[in-house]
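Loading example: each entry is read as two labelled lines plus one structure line.
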Amino acid sequence: MTNTLIQSGTRILGLDPGLRRTGWGVVVAEGSRLRWIAHGVISPPEAAPFSERLLFLLEAVGEVCTAYSCDEAAIEEVYVNMNPSSTLKLGHARAAVMLAPARCGLSVAEYSPNLIKKAVVGSGHADKGQIAFMIKRLLPAAGEVKTDAADALAVAVTHAQLRKRALLEMVS
Amino acid sequence: MTNTLIQSGTRILGLDPGLRRTGWGVVVAEGSRLRWIAHGVISPPEAAPFSERLLFLLEAVGEVCTAYSCDEAAIEEVYVNMNPSSTLKLGHARAAVMLAPARCGLSVAEYSPNLIKKAVVGSGHADKGQIAFMIKRLLPAAGEVKTDAADALAVAVTHAQLRKRALLEMVS
C-alpha cells in the first residue's frame, strides 16, 4: 500500500530492512512539526537468484528516494545476537537498502532498535504493537500501517527528533 | 596494482569481498583455455561513513565490470562461524560487491571456500599460500598477485571450470 501527500520541508526516508520485506516511510520535518508523506513495503521475488533479490531492493528503494525527493535517510541498526545465517542475510539486505539513498547523495543515519523505541514510545523495551500505536497517533494521516512500514516510519520519526535536537544545540 | 591484457572470449569476474579490501580478478575462458586479463584490490576509505564505504565498493566494482566488459561474475560464499559482528559487516560488503555485476545485468554465481580450494588446488583444505602458488602456475601472465586478488582469481578460475563442465554436460 502506498498513499501520498506532497508537502515542503526536509523529507526524511526511514528504512526497516529485510530480504523478504523492507519497510519504508517518508515524513517531512517542518520546524517542530512532523507530517506523514508516504509509506510502503517492498518484497523482492523470493524465487529469484540472491543477487537479483538484492538488486530489486536497491532499485525499489532508489525509486522511493527519487519519487518523494528525499533529503535525508535513516536506517535501523541490527541486533547481532540472532543466528549467524540470518545475520548474514540481513546484512546483505541492509546494505542493498542503505546503498539506494547513498547513490542519490543522501546521508544515511543509523539508530539502534532501543533508541528508536525510546524516541517513539518512550521506553527502550516497547513492542511492535506499541510502536504501531504511537505511529498512528504521531502521524494520523498515515491511516492503517502494517508492522514493517510502521517500523520504518518510527526510524524516520526518530531521525526527525534527533536531527531537530542537534540543530537546536547548534544555534543555542 | 592493475595490469591488463585484452582478449576475446567469455570474460569472468571473480570477487573476494571485504569491507577493508575487496579482491577482484578477470579471466577469459576460451574453449578449454584460461587466460588472465586483469586483477586488483579495492580499499574503501576507512574513515568514511559506513554507507559511503559500501557505495565506494559498489561503484569501484561496477567500473571494473564496465572497463573489462565482463560477461559473468562469481563470488565466494561466506563462512558464518566467525563472530556475529564481523559476519554482519562482511554481509554488507558482500552485498555491495554482488550488486555491481547484478546492476550490469550479469549473473552472479556463488561458490563455497572449500569448493574453490578443491577446484584450484585439488584439496578443500588448502591454505592461502597454496592458492596463490596455483594461481601463479595457472595464470602466469598475472605476475606477482597479492592474497585478496589471488583469492578473487581463484573464484574466477573455479567458475570457468564449473561453467565449462556444465556446458560439456549440456552437449553430451
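The CA atoms of residues 132 and 148 of chain A lie 9 Å apart.
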